[in-house]
Structures are given as structure tokens and as C-alpha cells.
């Protein structure tokens, strides 16, 4: 792991990383199916240090999705007010360095304010160029109590994006207002970075992790759990049908009132993207809170989204190694539950067909990027047993032609292109906003739909997967391959998939693992359906 303290060193390091990544990609590009993705991207995790498990979750997500992970540690003076805790903010670099090294971070960027081109002054006193988000997003919630804070955040985040030029940057949902503002910043300024939101990480008590938690005494830590309890109480009421803002907020107040030492700054219900205040939740809302306990300021929030009462049906994400039966099982689950089977592989094939149809060279990534961002893909259920999902692209039914030898031979090269991957994942996530999907792949539950309500990790022994593949080859009339050879091939691939530093195969922490040895696809599907129904009942 490298420690970089200057802009010059950072830029030099990133140039070298991008060169090495391209060489490694060309040497190791073995895309065995259209859903596999080998990223060569740079991921940035911006922090102010004082790292904890919440930061570690951001780093772990970045490690899964990028070949190079940079963690910046910079206590930003521009986001602190005149009477705030800038001089006392936790600075624990030695511990932070250990955490980063153990988590597989490639480099830490640790600049001084001078290196970042700013004085150690707050945003009101500085004369540097500022990035000012829309007033409607920074005047409410925390902005009302911390004037200038989000201008300071936006200014430094923009500088970091310009310096690192990451493909992705990772932020926690705990700072919901900050997350919404940064997403808006990136969209409005057309910055070429994907903002990845990661779930809030909590202590066993429910207290949201924060660097400032170390200011709290043991007694105060216990008292602070009332914030999450209040949010939970409102969540329960929301699931029971309460949609009115004043009622939901009153429930949080009622819970917090039990701890007299907590001073509430605000409890508000807002739209998560625009931060506009809501009187009633129509689709989703962010119930946010800020309070002081002693000298410590605490924030928390929860997203209220009606998954099970008609606004959004659940998503079932099925991951697992090759040969575990994901596609067959996913189709059966979708059919039994009346959900849409999201055939992600067919999407990559459809793009490949269109590239060939238009006569575009497979190597012309610019033309392909333009094509994929200007096309319409539709997947519709069908009664056709052989083709249960009909695939349309730009109003052409390509269900059968995408299975030709010509398309199959080129789909891996198309799927390897970052613009294709990004555009199709965005389409998949757009479809996921309405829910009602069953999707399968290698990173469906960890990257594409990290908030899926039901996550499954299908697996099977090497011997069982080899037996199934052998049977498939026989049924399809393909050349005979011995079971021993198939077992060796699958074991080698498993090792490669699970140990590679770039996008290793892994089970999501909240996924149900299903061992499929000795089970038919119907039996596996039945177990997933049962688990799905249990989850609905719990909610």
C-alpha cells in the first residue's frame, strides 16, 4: 500500500496504475459468459479519517468493483463552522493506515490543506473558488444548523474528483443529505464518476457508526440508541399503513422524549433525491434526524419505501458460481411468483447483435458507447417454453437471433467494455425501481441490486456441477468430455473466481446460501419461494 501526500505523487501513481491495469486486462481477459465483468476502474473512498466499520464497508465495496482503490483522508476545514470541532476532530492516522492495509487499499491520499490549495479557514472566511449546490438542498436539515457546511463539502469533493478522476466514489447512506447533494453535483456538472451509496452500518445497539461516536461516554452511547429506536418505531407504523409526515415524526419524538439529555435539532421527512419536504409519502421518503447529546452532534435516517403494499414489489437476486443452476432456477422462481425474470445475459447479447447489425467494429468502443446509450431494450414474459423471455431492442424482436454463433462468439468482447456494462446496469437498476424482478448473475446481489429484499447464493459441490455439465453436453450432442476433466476445469475456475483481486465471487452478507447437491431445480426453486414468502410475512 502506498502513502501519497502530494498531488504530484497521486497523479504519477494513478498514471502507472491505469497502465498496469490495461496490461493485466489484456493478458487475463477470459470472459466465459456475458455476465462476467473484469473492471479496470479506480474507486475512491473519501474520508476525514477516524475510520470505523462503516468506512470499512465502503472500502470493501470499492475493493469488489475496482482494480485500484484510493482512500483519501482529509479533515476538511471548509466544512466546519467557526465554533465547531475542527481542531478536535479525531485524527487517528496510524490506526487508519492499519485498517486500510488490512482491507486491501492500494493507496492512501493524505494531503495537507496547503497541498489541497485551501487555508485552514471555514468556508465563510476563505477566498478560494467554491462549489455551491442548489439552495433548496443546502438550506434545510443539517444546512439550517451548519451554514456553509455543504458548500465546503461540495468544494473539496469536487477537488478530489478532479485529482483522482475515479470511476466510482463511495458514500454512506447515514449522511443522507450529503449523499443527495453529491449525486446532484455529479449530475449537474456532468462529472464522469458513478456515486455508489452504501447502507448505514450500525453497532449492535442500533447506533449508526460515526467517527464522532468516540466523543460519547458509555452512558451517552446507550442513551443515543433512542434515535434509531425512534426511526424503527416510525418504520413499523409506515409498514402498518401510516403515510402522513406529522404522524411519523410524532412517533420519533415520542421515543426520543424518554431521554431528557438529548436535544433534538430536527426530525424531518423529505424526498431522498431532491430533499424537498414531504407531507405524505407517495413513493418513498427519507426520515432524517439530528440531535445533540452533550457536546456531540449525531445524525441518522431511514428510507421509507413501501415494498410490500403495491408501490414496489421485492427483488430477488440470485448469485453463485458457474454450474449452480442459477438461470434455470431463476426462471422457475419468476414463473411461480409471477415476477419478471431479468435475463441480463440476453441484454448483453442484444447489444452485441445490434453492434453486428450496424456493422460497427467490435474494437470501436466510442461508437458502441454511443449506441448502447441510445437504444431501448425490452424484456417481456412469454408462454414459449424454449424462450420464456422475449427480447426486443429498438422495436426489433431478437429473441432467437441473439443465440446465433455470430453473436455468441462476440458477446464476451462487448460485455468487457465499461460503457456497455455501465449502461446496462443502469437500465437494470431503473427496472428495479419498480421491483418485481428475479435476477441472476455473479454480482447481482452485491453490485447491481445491493438493496434487493431477497438475496440467494446458489452453490453445489464441484462433483455435482461437473455431473450436470456432463449431462448437458450429452443432451446437446456436444463432444464428450470426461467427468474428471470437467471437475478439474470447474475447480480451477472456482479458485480463480474466488481469489482474484478484481471482482471476486462472493456471497452477500445478507444472502441465504442454498446448497443444491441432490436437489432438482424445482426443489431449489421451491425453497427460494418459501424463503421469499417468509420474508414477506416478517415484514
From TrEMBL:
Signal peptide: none annotated. Beta-alanine binds at residue 79. SUPFAM superfamilies: Nucleotidylyl transferase, P-loop containing nucleoside triphosphate hydrolases. Residues 303-539 are annotated as: Cytidylate kinase. It is found in: Cytoplasm. Pathway: Cofactor biosynthesis; (R)-pantothenate biosynthesis; (R)-pantothenate from (R)-pantoate and beta-alanine: step 1/1. Its EC number is 6.3.2.1, 2.7.4.25. (R)-pantoate binds at residues 79, 178. It comes from the Bacteria. Residues 316-532 form the Cytidylate kinase domain. NCBIfam families: cmk, cyt_tran_rel, panC, PRK13477.1. In the N-terminal section; belongs to the pantothenate synthetase family. This is Bifunctional pantoate ligase/cytidylate kinase. It comes from Okeanomitos corallinicola TIOX110. The lineage of its organism: Bacteria, Bacillati, Cyanobacteriota, Cyanophyceae, Nostocales.
Amino acid at each position: 500500500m502506498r502513502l501519497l501526500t502530494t498531488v504530484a505523487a497521486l497523479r504519477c501513481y494513478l498514471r502507472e496504475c491505469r497502465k498496469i491495469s490495461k496490461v493485466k486486462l489484456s493478458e487475463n481477459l477470459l470472459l466465459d459468459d456475458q455476465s462476467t465483468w473484469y473492471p479496470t476502474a479506480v474507486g475512491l473512498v473519501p474520508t476525514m479519517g477516524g475510520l470505523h466499520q462503516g468506512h470499512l464497508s465502503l472500502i470493501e465495496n470499492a475493493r469488489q468493483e475496482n482494480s485500484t482503490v484510493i482512500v483519501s483522508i482529509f479533515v476538511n476545514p471548509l466544512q466546519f463552522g467557526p465554533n465547531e470541532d475542527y481542531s478536535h476532530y479525531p485524527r487517528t492516522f496510524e490506526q487508519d493506515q492499519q485498517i486500510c492495509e488490512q482491507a486491501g487499499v492500494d493507496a492512501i491520499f493524505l494531503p495537507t490543506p496547503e497541498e489541497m490549495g485551501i487555508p485552514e479557514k471555514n468556508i465563510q472566511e476563505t477566498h478560494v473558488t467554491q462549489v455551491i449546490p442548489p439552495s433548496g438542498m443546502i438550506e434545510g436539515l443539517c444546512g439550517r444548523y451548519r451554514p456553509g457546511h455543504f458548500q465546503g463539502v461540495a468544494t473539496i469533493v469536487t477537488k478530489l474528483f478532479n485529482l483522482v478522476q475515479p470511476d466510482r466514489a463511495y458514500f454512506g447512506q447515514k449522511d443522507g443529505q450529503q449523499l443527495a447533494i453529491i449525486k446532484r453535483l455529479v449530475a449537474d456538472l456532468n462529472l464522469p464518476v458513478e456515486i455508489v451509496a452504501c447502507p448505514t452500518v450500525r453497532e449492535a445497539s442500533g447506533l449508526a457508526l460515526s467517527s464522532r461516536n468516540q466523543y460519547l461516554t458509555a452512558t451517552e452511547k446507550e442513551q443515543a440508541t433512542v434515535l434509531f429506536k425512534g426511526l424503527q418505531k416510525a418504520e413499523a407504523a409506515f409498514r402498518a399503513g401510516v403515510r402522513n409526515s406529522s404522524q411519523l415524526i410524532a412517533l420519533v419524538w415520542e421515543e426520543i422524549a424518554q431521554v431528557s439529555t438529548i436535544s433534538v435539532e430536527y426530525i424531518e421527512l423529505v424526498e431522498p433525491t431532491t430533499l424537498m419536504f414531504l407531507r405524505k409519502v407517495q413513493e418513498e421518503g427519507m426520515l432524517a434526524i439530528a440531535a445533540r447529546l452533550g457536546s456531540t452532534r449525531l445524525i441518522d435516517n431511514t428510507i421509507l419505501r413501501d415494498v410490500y403494499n403495491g408501490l414496489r414489489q421485492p427483488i430477488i437476486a440470485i448469485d453463485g458460481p458457474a454450474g449452480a443452476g442459477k438461470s434455470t432456477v431463476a426462471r422457475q422462481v419468476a414463473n411461480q411468483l409471477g415476477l419478471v425474470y431479468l435475463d441480463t445475459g440476453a441484454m448483453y447479447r442484444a447489444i452485441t447483435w445490434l453492434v453486428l447489425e450496424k456493422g460497427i467494429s467490435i474494437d470501436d468502443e466510442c461508437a458502441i458507447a454511443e449506441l448502447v446509450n441510445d437504444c431501448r431494450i425490452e424484456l417481456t414474459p412469454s408462454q414459449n417454453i424454449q424462450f420464456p423471455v422475449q427480447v426486443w431492442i429498438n422495436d426489433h424482436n431478437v429473441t432467437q437471433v441473439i443465440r446465433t454463433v455470430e453473436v455468441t462468439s462476440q458477446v464476451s468482447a462487448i460485455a468487457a467494455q465499461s460503457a456497455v456494462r455501465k449502461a446496462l446496469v443502469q437500465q437494470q437498476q431503473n427496472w428495479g425501481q419498480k421491483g418485481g424482478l428475479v435476477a441472476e448473475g455473479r454480482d447481482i446481489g452485491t453490485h447491481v441490486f445491493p438493496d434487493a429484499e431477497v438475496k440467494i447464493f446458489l452453490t453445489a459441490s464441484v462433483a455435482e456441477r461437473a455431473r450436470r455439465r456432463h449431462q448437458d453436453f450429452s443432451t446437446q450432442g456436444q463432444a464428450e468430455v470426461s467427468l474428471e476433466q470437467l471437475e478439474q476445469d470447474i475447480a480451477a475456475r472456482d479458485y480463480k473466481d474466488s481469489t482474484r483481486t478484481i471482482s471476486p465471487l462472493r456471497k452477500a452478507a445478507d444472502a441465504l446460501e442454498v446448497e443444491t447437491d441432490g436437489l432438482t431445480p424445482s426443489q431449489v426453486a421451491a425453497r427460494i419461494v418459501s424463503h421469499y414468502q417468509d420474508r414477506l410475512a416478517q415484514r
